[in-house]
UniProtKB/TrEMBL annotation, chain A:
SUPFAM superfamilies: MetI-like. Residues 84-296 form the ABC transmembrane type-1 domain. It comes from the Bacteria. It is a multi-pass membrane protein. Keywords: Cell membrane, Membrane, Transmembrane, Transmembrane helix, Transport. The lineage of its organism: Bacteria, Pseudomonadati, Pseudomonadota, Alphaproteobacteria, Hyphomicrobiales. PANTHER family: ABC TRANSPORTER PERMEASE PROTEIN, INNER MEMBRANE ABC TRANSPORTER PERMEASE PROTEIN YCJO. Coiled coil: none annotated. This is Sugar ABC transporter permease. It comes from Devosia nitrariae. The chain crosses the membrane at residues 21-42, 90-109, 121-138, 169-194, 215-238, 277-299.
UniProtKB/TrEMBL annotation, chain B:
GO terms for molecular function: ATP binding. It comes from the Bacteria. Keywords: ATP-binding, Nucleotide-binding, Transport. This is ABC transporter ATP-binding protein. Belongs to the ABC transporter superfamily. InterPro entries: AAA+_ATPase (IPR003593), ABC_transporter-like_ATP-bd (IPR003439), ABC_transporter-like_CS (IPR017871), ABC_transpr_MalK-like (IPR015855), ABC_transpr_MalK/UgpC-like (IPR047641), Mo/tungstate-bd_C_term_dom (IPR008995), NA-bd_OB-fold (IPR012340), P-loop_NTPase (IPR027417). It comes from Devosia nitrariae.
Automatic annotation (TrEMBL), chain C:
Belongs to the binding-protein-dependent transport system permease family. Keywords: Cell inner membrane, Cell membrane, Membrane, Transmembrane, Transmembrane helix, Transport. It is found in: Cell inner membrane; Cell membrane. It comes from Devosia nitrariae. It is a multi-pass membrane protein. Signal peptide: none annotated. Part of the ABC transporter complex UgpBAEC involved in sn-glycerol-3-phosphate (G3P) import. Probably responsible for the translocation of the substrate across the membrane. This is sn-glycerol-3-phosphate transport system permease protein UgpE. The complex is composed of two ATP-binding proteins (UgpC), two transmembrane proteins (UgpA and UgpE) and a solute-binding protein (UgpB). The chain crosses the membrane at residues 16-38, 73-97, 109-133, 145-163, 184-206, 244-265.
Length: 306, 362, 279
């Protein structure tokens, strides 16, 4: 019988080398990514923290260590404080909408019909558009006097509403655009979770003559509670970073009521060129997001422990 | 020469030791079967030979060469996995060619090898299909074909028949045996099915809890089990074990007194100097029905199999006894029957499980 | 197909029809914009209600093709998105395989270290990143637009969990077939990971195409704008701009290709989104 794998003297040495190589080969696989990760994520993260303790003017190129000066300044900057509250309001406006509306749509579309498939495609559709296309579309809806909404309100005798110019309504208008834009994500996540619920539970419940609402409340919702928390966490983290919509629709106005934290950072860093100040604001945003995410996870873990 | 020599192999996963000092010699061209209950370490032993796990201790030789430091591909072995592990994205032909291509075999040689393997296994018409287009039995053949094309010195099979239905399993058993004769290669076959072991092996390695219990040809393992474990594991229905209360000597042979006071003569020599047995064992077909027999049993269940009758019964102390009767046996549930085990077949087992064999009948 | 089960409870049927009504709210803005894009600008200045009556015109589109830099921006977006997607696929597949299947000193600790990166928002590092790229003179280049996304750990995480789920025996069989680690990766693991590659490609492409903040900072010269940024620049002076019809033609021109791509690949996109949530 022929032997393809012949014995040769070099074999032992080759094997020894292969043993050494395989011990480090894994590192060679992950090295390219690790270099990029260290260079483009970790290093900026660290230097951002350092920068937040500096006075750094990008235009003049000066920089000096100033300790907590930036943070102290931020703590009494009404525009920054305002941006935190605006962002919080925005999160409170959007996240419940994403969770409730996303869940309702998912519940209604969780069926194997063609109509449901078409509507799933439709609701997710805007998600593939960039923020600039979305704001172009909605500007013509919100446009004062001639836009779709003002035309309607005028026809009804209410006169023009000029929503984006109204400090009470502008943020809600941006929130509505955001829901229109990205309801598809929570919807799809809820649909995926609903698909995982075993059908026989429903059949058993129906045999126990539970009403549909009762089934929803006692079986469906508990079965997907994990996903509900997950969606809430994802959306909190995403909406805390709101920027494009406000920058393009309102520019932070009217009267600073829509200025978000990221927008504040952007303007401080790239319009006033105060890099240290902007970096300090970034750290605060980062910290708030970590706390928010941590809090949500803590809440979601609690029932499992008791 | 492709004799496989396993010397003092040990394997631990972390702190859990799963193989303890396993030593086995497998001759060139032999068909060795690793037999043992699930979880006893058979797969682990096979994977050590293949080089898919690293040894904790010991050495492995194939022929004159020590291979336990070599990469899996360089050991001259081929393995048929329990799950077959066919590359799902490649055609059958590409599956067979993959290993040869990797060592730079010329295309015409590869084609020739594939043709040969396909002819032997009768899978010529399947060569251009993908694995998911094959039935379980066909996949199994392709997996064997992938091993054959490499012309390895040693074939390793890990329970390759366990995913087949009973009829196909019986047929494939015969075919693998034929293949072994045809190729003359050394084969190591893992199974937990004693029928596979008995029918295919030239040598059975019985394993239990990470240790080798006994190595030997099938009939020897069946007739002369080295331990109580082997005696119980091999043979269906299982060997009967009767607890011994007391032993005495009767003309140089050991005589056992059972719990109910019945005495059983044996042909186990007392002069051999071994420990006295705590149990006696006999197979269900090594017993005669005899109203004067020492074993008094009560029948519970009668299974009439057509060619013979299996009777499930128990002694007065509850010890279960199974025996085989002829096909028109009239025995019924509730009957009290006397049994007389064949004198020369009664095996003793001492406290450590070691077997005490009777002298062979003259 | 759309017929409803008569057995179905009223409640369920009601919610279905409610959602159908709701879906109109999703559809109307799209058609509204499409309609506006075919209206002469002068007429729209009297009110957008004129969209419901003739005349309609293609002038906005011909103006767009003739005068704007839209073509250049689309090219930039295509180049950046495709290169970024390809690079992310390559880097993350290799690294994901390394973390999933190869043993090397410090593997676990390194993987945890990389997972931490999932919690770092891009906004938190954008200021120092900008400064870094100023020093390296990378702003207003394709490299500058692409690089920051190559360090994100999401793809590594996604690929590693997919590779981990592949049956190990396939790779062991390949090792017995004399394939090297690299070859096993290329010829066995990689072809079997195509579903995960598709998911990662979709996310990366969408992310690159729609990214707003980084290109806004990095691409300051109009010829380096991505489509997203280019459109942003034209709408900042919405009221005094070239006209609403023209702007809407831009929106359609920019949005329609993505919607068409989405309709073609919707099966994969929706599966990717649903699957990523399951992790
Ligand atoms: N990679 C591993 N890590 C830890 N324990 C293992 C591993 N592989 C096998 N074992 C353990 O080793 C023992 C023997 O397993 P195995 O060789 O698969 O048994 P068999 O093939 O005889 O059923 C089992 O108890 C199993 O749980
Ligand atoms: Mg096994």
């Amino acid at each position: 019988m022929t032997t393809l794998v012949g014995v040769d003297a070099a074999r032992g040495r080759r094997a020894a080398r292969a043993g050494w190589w395989s011990r480090w080969a894994g590192l060679a696989f992950v090295a390219p990514f690790l270099v990029l990760y260290l260079w483009l994520m970790i290093y900026p993260l660290v230097s951002g923290v350092i920068m937040s303790f500096q006075y750094k003017d990008l235009l003049s190129g000066t920089s000096e260590f100033v300790g907590f000066w930036n943070y102290e300044d931020l703590s009494i900057d009404p525009i920054f404080i305002g941006s935190i509250f605006n962002t919080l309001r925005f999160v409170i406006l959007t996240v419940p909408a994403f969770v409730v509306l996303g869940l309702l749509i998912a519940l209604a579309l969780n069926r194997p019909t063609r109509g449901a498939a078409i509507m799933r495609t439709l609701f997710f559709g805007p998600h593939v558009l960039s923020v600039t296309v979305v704001t172009l579309i909605w500007k013509t809806v919100y446009l004062p006097n001639v836009g779709m909404i003002d035309a309607g309100s005028t026809a009804l005798g209410l006169g023009p509403l000029s929503i984006l110019l109204n400090p009470d309504w502008a943020l809600a208008a941006v929130a509505l655009v955001t829901v229109w834009w990205s309801i598809g994500l929570p919807m799809m996540l809820f649909l995926a979770a609903l698909q995982q619920v075993p059908q026989d539970i429903y059949e058993a419940a129906r045999l126990d003559s539970a009403s549909p609402l009762r089934i929803l409340w006692t079986i469906t919702i508990p079965s997907i509670s994990k996903m509900i928390v997950l969606v809430a966490v994802i959306e909190v983290v995403l909406q805390f970073q709101v920027f494009g919509q406000v920058n393009l629709l309102t520019g932070g106005g009217p009267n600073n009521t829509t200025r978000s934290m990221v927008m504040f950072i952007y303007q401080a860093g790239f319009q006033q060129w105060q890099a240290g100040y902007a970096a300090a604001a970034s750290q605060i945003l980062f910290a708030i997001m970590l706390v928010a995410a941590g809090l949500q996870f803590w809440v979601s873990r609690k029932p499992a422990e008791s | 020469m492709a004799a496989v020599d396993l010397r003092g192999l040990s394997k631990a996963f972390g702190l859990v030791k799963v193989l303890h000092d396993v030593s086995v010699d497998i001759g060139d061209g032999e068909f060795a079967v690793l037999l043992g209950p699930s979880g006893c370490g058979k797969t682990t032993l096979l994977r050590l030979i293949a080089g898919l796990e690293t040894l904790s201790d010991g050495e492995i030789r194939i022929g004159d060469e020590r291979i336990d430091q070599l990469q899996p591909g360089q050991r001259g072995i081929a393995m048929v996995f329990q799950s077959y592990a066919l590359y799902p994205h490649m055609s059958v032909r590409a599956n067979l060619a993959y290993g040869l291509k990797n060592i730079g075999t010329p295309a015409n040689v590869i084609a020739q090898r594939i043709d040969q393997a396909a002819t032997i296994l009768e899978i010529e018409q399947l060569l251009d299909r993908k694995p998911h287009q094959l039935s379980g039995g066909q996949r199994q053949r392709v997996a064997i074909g992938r091993a054959i094309t490499k012309s390895p010195k040693v074939f390793l099979f890990d329970e390759p028949l366990s995913n087949l239905d009973a009829a196909l399993r019986a047929r494939t058993r015969v075919e693998i045996s034929k293949l072994h004769q045809q190729l003359g290669a050394t084969m190591i076959f893992v199974t937990h099915d004693q029928v596979e072991a008995m029918t295919m092996a030239s040598k059975i390695v019985v394993m239990n809890a990470g240790r080798v219990e006994q190595v030997g040809p099938p009939l020897e393992v069946y007739r002369h089990p080295a331990t109580r474990f082997v005696a119980a594991f091999i043979g269906t229905p299982q060997m009967n074990f009767v607890p011994v209360n007391q032993t005495s000597e009767n003309g140089g042979w050991l005589q056992a007194t059972l719990k109910d006071g019945a005495r059983l003569d044996t042909r186990i020599a007392t002069s051999a100097g071994h420990a006295s047995p705590v149990e006696l064992g006999f197979r269900p077909d090594e017993v005669a029905v005899d109203p004067d027999g020492a074993l008094k049993i009560e029948v519970e269940v009668v299974e009439r199999l057509g060619d013979r009758t299996l009777v499930y019964a128990h002694l007065s102390d509850g010890t279960p006894i199974i025996y085989q009767d002829h096909s028109d046996s009239q025995v019924q549930r509730g009957d009290r029957v006397g049994l007389r085990p064949h004198l020369h077949k009664l095996i003793g087992f001492d406290g450590s499980g070691k077997a005490l064999h009777p002298e062979l009948a003259a | 197909m759309a017929k409803l089960d008569p057995q179905e409870p009223v409640f369920s049927r009601l919610s279905y029809w409610l959602v159908i009504a709701l879906s109109l709210c999703w559809l109307i803005p799209l058609f509204w914009v499409l309609g506006l894009s075919f209206k002469p600008n002068e007429e729209l200045s009297y009110g957008l209600g004129t969209v419901f009556r003739a005349p309609y015109t293609l002038d906005n589109y011909s103006d767009l093709i003739r005068s704007s830099q839209l073509g250049r921006w689309i090219l930039n977006s295509v180049v950046v998105s495709i290169i970024q997607t390809v690079l992310v696929l390559i880097i993350c597949s290799i690294a994901g395989y390394g973390f999933a299947r190869l043993e090397f000193p410090g593997r676990r600790a390194l993987f945890v270290f990389v997972l931490i990166g999932l919690a770092i928002p891009r906004q938190a590092i954008i200021i120092p990143l900008h400064a870094m790229f100023v020093d390296l003179d990378l702003h207003n280049t394709y490299t500058g637009l692409i690089l920051p996304h190559l360090g994100t750990p999401f793809g590594v995480f996604l690929m590693a969990s997919y590779f981990r789920a592949l049956p190990r025996e396939l790779e062991e069989a390949a090792a017995l077939d004399n394939a090297s680690r690299w070859k096993i990766f290329l010829t066995i693991a990689l072809p079997l990971s195509v579903p995960a590659q598709i998911t990662l490609a979709i996310f990366t492409f969408l992310d690159a195409w729609n990214d707003y903040l980084w290109p806004l900072i990095s691409a300051t010269r109009p010829e380096m704008y991505t489509l997203t940024i280019g459109l942003a620049a034209t709408q900042t002076n919405f009221d005094q701009s070239e006209g609403i019809g023209y702007l809407m033609a831009q929106a359609v021109f920019a949005g329609l290709p993505m919607l068409i791509l989405y309709l073609i690949f919707q099966k994969y996109v929706l599966r990717a989104v649903a699957g990523a949530g399951g992790r």
